[in-house]
Amino acid sequence: MTDDKSFKSPFSNLTSLDTSLMRSTKPKEDFKPANQQTGKPDYQQTSLPVKQQAVKPANQLSPKRSSFQKVTYHLSPEAIDAIEDAKRILRREYDSKTTLEEIAEIAILEAYNDLIKNQQTSKLVNQITSKPESHKT
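Structure (tokenized):
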């Protein structure tokens, strides 16, 4: 093989890259990349999907409601549609902002008051006793 001292690299005359070609002709304080924006950022307006409803997390309920006990009931699709329709009607026709909880609470208390006041002729008794599965055999 050859001696290391006798071997001369073809690149040995180049001590460093010529960086003068890469330097900007503008002063540094004026130099800004072409893709960088200046000034205040533009705020983009976003929108929610049409079907999405804003729901308050349990910890953001009104102070009155936050102390209430949370319960869950299985409801028929018709009952769910009815309560949502009631909320929509109240909002559109009466400009009332209410919650599904408030509507359900009022309906339950009204049914209870009707039961106490009218007993056997109440709507609740009539609906429940007219079902064949509610009669004991």
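The CA atoms of residues 6 and 12 lie 13 Å apart. The longest helix spans residues 100-118.
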